[in-house]
Amino acid sequence: MTVTAQRPAAGLPLGSILVDGLLAALVAFALAAPMIGFETVDGSGGSLGLAYRFDAVAVAVATVFVGRLALSAIRFGHALPVLVVAAAATAVALAGAVAGTMLAGLLAVPAAVLAIRAGIVVWRGVTAERDVRFVVPDTVRGARRAVPAAFLALAVLFPFLPFVDQRLLDIAILVLTYIMLGWGLNIVVGLAGLLDLGYVAFYAVGAYTFGILANWAGFTFWMALPLGGLMAALFGILLGFPVLRLRGDYLAIVTLGFGEIIRIVLLNWYEVTGGPNGLSNIPRPTFFGLPFRASPQDDESTFADFFGLEFSPVHRVIFLYFVILVLALIVNAFTRRIRRLPVGRAWEALREDEIACRSLGINPTNTKLSAFAIGAGFAGFAGCFFAARQGFISPESFTFIESAVILAIVVLGGMGSQLGIVLAAIILIGMPEFLRELNQFRMLAFGAGMVGIMVWRPLGLLARREPTIRLHPAGAGRPGGAA
Amino acid sequence: MLSIQALRTFYGHIEALKGVDIEVQAGEIVTMIGANGAGKSTLLMSMCGNPRARFGKVMFEGRDITQLPTFEIVRLGIAHAPEGRRIFPRMTVMENLQIGSTTAPSYFEEGLARVLRLFPRLDERRQQRAGTLSGGEQQMLAIGRALMSRPRLLLLDEPSLGLAPMVVKQIFQVIREINEAEGMTVFLVEQNAYHALRLAHRGYVLVNGRVTMSGSGAELLANREVRAAYLEGGH
What we know:
The complex is a heterodimer.
Chain A: H1 14-36, E1 38-42, E2 48-52, H2 54-75, H3 79-99, H4 102-124, H5 132-142, H6 146-157, H7 166-191, H8 200-217, H9 221-240, H10 248-268, H11 270-273, H12 303-306, H13 313-338, H14 342-352, H15 354-358, H16 364-390, H17 400-413, H18 418-434, H19 442-456
Antiparallel strand pairs in A: 1-2
Helix pairs in contact in A: 1-2, 2-4, 3-4, 7-13, 7-16, 7-17, 7-18, 8-9, 8-10, 8-16, 9-16, 13-16, 14-16, 17-18, 18-19
Chain B: E1 2-11, E2 14-24, E3 29-34, H1 40-47, E4 55-60, E5 63-64, H2 70-75, E6 78-81, H3 93-100, H4 108-118, H5 120-124, H6 135-147, E7 153-157, H7 165-182, E8 185-190, H8 193-199, E9 202-207, E10 210-216, H9 217-222, H10 224-231
Parallel strand pairs in B: 3-8, 3-9, 6-7, 7-8
Antiparallel strand pairs in B: 1-2, 1-4, 4-5, 9-10
């Protein structure tokens, strides 16, 4: 961006603003023409034809041009009119989105960003000298306590909200699973600073532990859950030992390989894992022994019977939702607690400086292994849940891309920030589900979102690290204490 | 207390320490001065087993610690404030100090009071991220953090590095204080020969991996060769 700190000039240098806008439009055209200008269609006789979407390209280029002009206008002290126009444009675009044109909804995003930017400038009475990224943390800091509580309340009430249907619940369960995985990986990557690209392997170990135990020994979900976590933790230690001396890129490559080894073993150990066919008939979790079924089998009572409810398949989904919510919250509580304990603090110290750690009497071997094992154990729990929810698992669910997505959640969330991971998981997992209506623009919008995060929040959504000790909480001020 | 005997350390084929002998008695401040690349830091790090000495011995309170892993050496009562300070920049001052007491958790409260008394500046900054401290404050934190493990021997690697003369004076004053008031044994590696020799009871001069001279601080300070090599035109 060329919008760096230039002094606001006295008048409007119209010429240079126009040139700037045209240049931006040119770049937009170069990007938009190949990306959204062409569409492949089935031609007559099975051949592949090309359709052109000049209108969409024109809209994109025009949007960039106008947006750029608006940015310049903000910079030169005309924030108020920009705010009005952008807010109006946002409203119109949103109305269009409600009316059914998804493309109009897309236009709402840049309009809203412009409106917010102009609004901030108007609010602060400065001319964009301060960039947006300096403003966000202030607001975040103020809401540090309120936001997690609000999220928690929303999460607990979510299944009972009137507009929530089974599809939304399914998405929520998926998002929560990734939040749990993100929080688990956060221990390894965010706290201990060990870049793990094979995290999905432990997820797979947990899932297959349950799958195999269910198929060969008739285990139920609740019996297998602790074993799945334990098994994954063991694999974490197994991986940990050979990679103890590695750091950074080297560690990343070895963990990547480890993830692939697990997947390939699952794929080829046909007798036990079912190979590419996977394992099916994995029992669904029961509510303290009460299954979620329409009609009881072998004179057991079902959940609906026991509570005198009309049977509904939603019951099970709601139950699954709460299971994963509780599992995720356990990971969260555990992480927050352990950060205050010597082990957790040693993890963070290890991330900062391994040599200094050793010179302070911290045993790096045990510290790393514990991070690996605990992080892996949580993935194992999540894997168990995944198997129980799907009722079917195959190696296809545990490819490298899963590891990459989980890692992206941790990094975008801001390495080590619990709330950031929640936001990132909602954006990364939830958004693509909601954006399905965008059809072929879906991945484009997704990519744009990622670029946006990295431009505006280069250290992740919530990059601020929460100190683990506050000896003198605010208010209890003591002389000398800088609380 | 500490006795180093014919210590030889290698980086690959390069011999960085060519047989070094050093004695440190309990309650002493001993300094090792030398030019860049003489092997001062290597010596300190060899004492902590990283890199490990190939030949020779490091004895601490009568025990051979040459082959022990670093973190166990530290647990025996040796604290090391490493070169370049190596504080944990994203953690707060308090957290840094807390990590310092990893090997002596029960000592935390007492140790904290002691460190904050020695370095009142840290008291003002306790909730601040360590990376945002000034160089002098970071050095104070590095020494404070080392003291949190309740060591009997304190190893300091160039505490004056990159600091303003005023701050250097302050820090050396604190080193003297913990030695005189608490009887802490200090082994100090320094390029700033003038200050180091004035502070120390005894000193060694290291040249190209060998000890070429030793004596009391005052003797070395008066020695013509030492003056010519390390003091003239300096300080």
